[in-house]
Amino acid sequence: MVSTLLPTLSLPVSRATAFLLGTPLKSFRSHHPLLRSFLASASSLSSPPTPRSLVTMASAAIPARRDLLMLGIETSCDDTAAAVVRGDGEILSQAIASQSDLLVKWGGVAPKMAEEAHALAIDQVVQKALDDANVSESDLSAVAVTIGPGLSLCLRVGVHKARKIAKVFHLPIVGVHHMEAHALVSRLVNKDLDYPFLALLISGGHNLLVLAQNLGEYVQLGTTIDDAIGEAYDKSARWLGLDIRKGGGPALEELALEGDPNSINFRVPMRQHKDCNFSYAGLKTQVRLAIESRNLCTDDIPISSATEEDRQLRANIAASFQRIAVLHLEDRCQRAVEWALKMEPSIKHFVVSGGVASNQYVRAHLNHIAEKNGLQLVSPPPSLCTDNGVMIAWTGIEHFLAGRFEDPPPADEPDDMQYELRPRWPLGEEYSEGRSVSRSLRTARIHPSLTSMTKSSRN
Ligand code: KG4
Ligand code: ZN
């Protein structure tokens, strides 16, 4: 049996949307009196809006709804996270269990191990979030949970937990797109941030440039054709023999402070491609070659035992890598600003979020791009840039208030229910100018984009 939270691939988009992004408000209202007051204000959002009114309504969708209490659950990758957030954006709690030991041991995320670690941590993490918020499940208005993109095995742990709570306490569920959550948490930290805005989302698995036109509606200006920047930081840190228990990115950022960023001439990727796509696989290889050609025994000698000269060489590689990695971001972001302003001249904000956005060098350089173009940079504090439960709860709140959520699971739903998840789930369609000849998009088993679902849910 497949849950209605996650529709089967064979469903046409319009039907899938009805199942997936929310039960219509009317049918829900009848058996959920608790939510009547929220829905009264949200119901206007369920009728098909004109393009102009979308902007106004988007700002109205951040209400002072202190009574709304959302639990957010995130298990898409290597962090088990949960948080309780009020409808007005007050963060009541956040709890997180990271799998750093596993990352060190396996050199990356091993899906089966990650699944087990999530399964071991999830009950405690959710309980801690509830305890720290001083609430119980029965106080919640709804549960938001990441349903993609990410590793199916890992996503399933969070969805299973969310449905269990929702079933017992008769709560609606909001299925959240992980990358949308990275973008939208910026609206929690900056209440002036309204649509349309440009967003760069940089994490371990994704490099996305999107134009956010409205809640759930994105134009994808660029993506990576191979690796994401976070993957390049992580591998480089590992190859340089750094202590990656707190993450490869932070370790490399720290060492780079000691190095000369101009000491090694790494090539900036994709300069010949006049688009907004990214590529970090080649830069990774350049780092590997730089280490090998200098005969640094980084596999055997960790940085803590390196000689002063060896440490300086490693720091130079780290700093030079970081300079070029970020220069590549700057190139693509400058072009994306131009494209975005052509489509939406009213844009005022440039959002930078995702784990890599917690890097101070990255933030400073992208702030420069924002200022140069008369935009305001909005980047959440580091703890909200890396994976967390708050961003899921907040995105759940935004969709919930827009009327996109699912009914509580039926009381007889079996505990071993198999849910269909969305490991590969685009945020939006590609901007036509952005199609790179070098793109080799694997299209198998990709779900309809969030944007196409949002749009068809209105029809
Ligand atoms: O968003 P995130 O927490 O998880 C994913 O969705 O992937 O991003 C994790 C990525 C990792 O590659 C991590 O090394 C990177 O973000 N990261 C950083 C920094 N902090 C985290 N990269 C560079 N500098 C940092 N300070
Ligand atoms: Zn993430």
**Alpha carbon gap, first and last residue:** 28 Å
Q: Assign an overall shape.
A: globular
By CATH, the superfamily of one domain comes out as ATPase, nucleotide binding domain
What's the mean pLDDT score?
Answer: 85
Q: What's the β-strand tally?
A: 11
**Proportion in β-strands:** 5-15%
Itemize the secondary structure elements and their pairings:
Layout: H1 13-20, H2 25-30, H3 36-42, H4 51-60, E1 69-74, E2 79-86, E3 91-98, H5 100-106, H6 111-133, E4 142-148, H7 152-169, E5 173-177, H8 178-189, E6 197-202, E7 207-214, E8 217-222, H9 229-239, H10 248-256, H11 281-293, H12 308-343, E9 349-353, H13 360-372, E10 376-378, H14 382-385, H15 389-401, E11 429-430, H16 450-457
Parallel strand pairs: 1-4, 4-5, 6-9, 8-11, 9-10
Antiparallel strand pairs: 1-2, 2-3, 6-7, 7-8
Helix pairs in contact: 1-16, 6-7, 8-15, 9-10, 9-11, 9-12, 10-12, 11-12, 12-13
Bound molecules: 5'-O-[(R)-(carboxyoxy)(hydroxy)phosphoryl]adenosine and zinc ion (ZN).
Plain-language structure description:
The chain is of the alpha/beta class and 459 residues long. It has a domain at 69-190 and 385-427 and 448-457: 2-Layer Sandwich (Nucleotidyltransferase, domain 5). Helices cover 43% and strands 14% of the residues. The strands form 2 sheets. A 6-stranded mixed beta sheet has the order 10-9-6-7-8-11, with helices on both faces. α1 (13-20) packs across α16 and α9 packs parallel to α11 (281-293). It is globular and about 65 Å long. The two termini are 28 Å apart. Residues 77, 203-205, 230, 233-234, 247-250, 253, 354-356, 358-359, 386-387 line the site of 5'-O-[(R)-(carboxyoxy)(hydroxy)phosphoryl]adenosine. It is found in: Mitochondrion. Homodimer. One of its GO terms (biological process) is tRNA threonylcarbamoyladenosine modification. Pfam families: TsaD (PF00814).
